[in-house]
Amino acid sequence: MPELPEVETVRRYLQNHLPGKSIQQIEIFLPRLIKNATSQQFAAALKNKKIKKVERRGKYLFLHIDGPQSLLIHLRMTGRLVYEEEPFSVLPRFNRIVFQLTQGRMLYGDVRTLGCLWLIPSVGLTGVKGYDTLGPDGTSPDFTAAYLRQKLKDTTRTIKSFLLDQTNVAGLGNIYVDEALFAARITPLRRCNRIGKETAVRLHDAVVRVLEEGIVHGGTTIRDFINGSGKEGQNQQNLCVYGREGRPCPVCGTKIVYIKLAGRGTHYCPHCQK
Ligand SMILES: [Zn+2]
Prior knowledge:
The protein is of the alpha+beta class. The protein contains seven helices and ten strands. It folds into two domains: 4-132, Alpha-Beta Barrel (N-terminal domain of MutM-like DNA repair proteins), CATH 3.20.190.10; 145-268, Helicase, Ruva Protein, domain 3, CATH 1.10.8. The protein has helices at residues 4-17, 39-46, 129-132, 145-153, 159-164, 174-183, 197-216, and strands at 23-28, 51-57, 60-65, 69-74, 79-84, 95-101, 105-110, 116-121, 257-261, 264-268. Strand 2 and strand 3 (60-65) form a beta hairpin. Helix 1 crosses helix 7 and helix 6 (174-183) packs across helix 7 (197-216). It is globular. The mean pLDDT is 97. The chain binds zinc ion. Zinc ion binds next to loops. Its EC number is 3.2.2.23, 4.2.99.18.
């Protein structure tokens, strides 16, 4: 699924194109994607309203609308948001919602239809539990080594499951957790409370670095991800362990191992990661 770098890549494109444009018309082909409103309520709240700003926290996109209600989107597995300028071609396959704007249109597409859209109050808590309980964003100044160290001390979970938990740090998913643990030379099986201060600092640096590199490379496209202009990311070329089971570790040449951990496929080097 799209993780922080992919969602940030989409956000940057949309932020460059959407602010100042108004939503003129909304066509909803799959109403159940909207989690807390009917199609009629959704369209009525957003129609003829101006988009002010596109923000992101963790893997959520927050479209600030000039009005009491705004739009929150989680792309889940295969959701994609693309802004098209005219002239329009036919709608792409698996397109689910069309936002006709004063100039151009924004398309929400989704092959597996697991994505979520919510109407939310423009200020204050959103009422969306997964969003309101998010921990500090992995790229924000609030996510510090001291914060991470403090959180790790309190739990005996494995570090893999800790990092996937969005209430600890927002934005990481399977790909960037595996890559960050490799960069920090920590086995995904390590218990959090057994991670010392120096290692916690190394892990913090690794998390920030893999996320920032992911953004620089326009996100990772394993299968479905495309950015806000409809193009694939390039970061898949920089992965060291994710999706590389049985292939040599780029540092020591040992074969990368694949296990199931915290219910998720997990890749690591048994030699480099202790
Ligand atoms: Zn290795």
